[in-house]
Specification:
A hairpin with a 7-residue loop joins strand 2 and strand 3. Helices cover 47% and strands 11% of the residues. Helix 4 packs across helix 6, helix 5 runs antiparallel to helix 6 and helix 12 crosses helix 15. The chain folds into three domains: 82 residues, no CATH class; 82 residues, DNA polymerase, domain 1, CATH 1.10.150; 171 residues, Orthogonal Bundle (hpI Integrase, Chain A), CATH 1.10.443. A three-stranded antiparallel sheet has the order 1-2-3, with helices on one face. Strands 4-5-6 form a three-stranded antiparallel sheet. A two-stranded antiparallel sheet has the order 7-8.
Length: 380
């Protein structure tokens, strides 16, 4: 059954549903994918009515499936019988080169993410050498382990090695679904749970005061979003007045956009006076991410904030210990020092899990507001 949800700037009820995606190379002719579609019903429409429309939308989606349920069941049953008889099911031979190309072609992500995925599969291709054109079944779990630990030895951080290996695992997962291989060689490999710290530090009270002293106009508003709610630079720059309702801000973080996860936080301090239409910080929103980061770095220079840049060996990037992302660490640290419950800290900073929240050192809006009032005190 479909479920209903809403998003900022959308006046309609949205249906979270499964749709059938046709894929000729897939053994079943395609696969189911979770998606969000508009019902075209205004939010003032009764939820019960919207739910009936959402269910009907999903039912139609099921009927449009190119393969019938019976044929899918029959194919699965045939595969099981063949395996029980010690015979191999029909398989389309593939190579790492073809599998990686297919994965990238089917992947939908932002430009920067796609660049990362291409680099990841290229790293593994370099590791394989001539074996990129060999049968995929020749790649073993031992190869995955050697590749992963080789990255660590070359000086890459554990985080980077994990991200690269996750992409490689995803390529093999897709190949398994397409019946290019019988099992994913990366599925059983366990990566180290000890992730390398991000290298970024929180701002202390003196630094916060110095930054706010030199920050003016749009940058001050953007920084307050970062300080109060641990927003990333992209999220802090792209907020709009239309997302403000009854003193609260409801927005969809960039990293959660594909999940449709809307975050609600109470506006605090100077942010409570925000009034207008359109983007709150239009000049900053129009900047490229790299340009905005550079401008914030220049602001830190004017504030006299001393930073340390660490350059890693191998292919890892140099890391500056204090950037806009440091506000996420700052917010969580201030809340922790004030004795705020971890679950409240997670909701305010929009972290996914207790583990992630620790790395950055069903609650009501009022509870969050009290927590922020207690933890964050702006210099007078």
């Amino acid at each position: 059954m479909a479920s209903l949800t809403t998003m900022p700037n959308s006046p309609f009820w949205l249906a979270r549903m499964r749709v059938w995606v046709a894929a000729p190379d897939h053994p079943q002719g395609g696969f189911w994918r979770q998606t969000i579609r508009s019902t075209k019903l205004p939010l003032k429409t009764a939820r019960r009515t919207a739910q009936r429309v959402a269910d009907e939308m999903e039912a139609v989606g099921r009927e449009l499936r190119s393969e019938t349920p019976d044929s899918v069941w029959a194919q699965s049953r045939l595969d099981a019988l063949l395996r029980a008889a010690g015979m191999s099911a029909a398989r389309r031979r593939s190579t790492w080169e073809k599998a990686a190309q297919g994965y990238l072609a089917a992947k939908t992500a932002k430009t920067r993410s796609m660049e990362s995925y291409r680099k990841h599969v290229a790293h593994f291709a370099d590791f394989l050498g001539q074996r990129t054109r060999h049968d995929l079944r020749s790649i073993t779990p031992e190869d995955i382990s050697e590749f992963y630990h080789g990255m660590i030895k070359r000086g890459l951080s554990t985080n980077t090695a994990q991200q690269v290996t996750k992409t490689i695992r995803a390529v093999f997962t897709r190949a398994t679904h397409l019946r290019n291989i019988e099992a994913n060689p990366a599925a059983l490999f366990r990566m180290s749970a000890d992730a390398t710290p991000s290298g970024r530090k929180a701002f202390n009270q003196g630094e916060i005061a110095a930054i706010l002293k030199v920050a003016q106009g749009e940058w001050r508003t953007c920084i307050l979003f970062g300080l109060y709610f641990g927003m990333r630079l992209g999220d802090a720059r792209r907020r709009s007045y239309e997302e403000i309702e009854d003193g609260n801000l409801r927005f969809l973080p960039e990293k959660k956009s594909r999940l449709g996860k809307v975050v609600t936080v109470p506006l605090m301090g100077e942010l409570q006076t925000l009034r207008g239409q359109g983007l709150i910080t239009p000049t900053l929103a129009a900047m490229e991410h790299g340009t905005a980061s550079k401008h914030f770095s220049q602001l830190l220079d004017r504030a006299g904030i001393v930073r340390v840049k660490t350059t890693k060996r191998g292919e890892g990037r140099g890391i500056t210990d204090k950037t806009f992302h440091s506000w996420r660490h700052t917010t969580n640290s201030l809340l922790a020092e004030a004795g705020i419950d971890q679950r409240v800290r997670q909701l305010i900073c929009d972290h996914d899990s207790v583990r992630v929240s620790n790395r950055y050192t069903a609650v009501s809006i009022d509870t969050m507001a009290k927590a922020l009032t207690k933890a964050i005190k702006l210099p007078s």
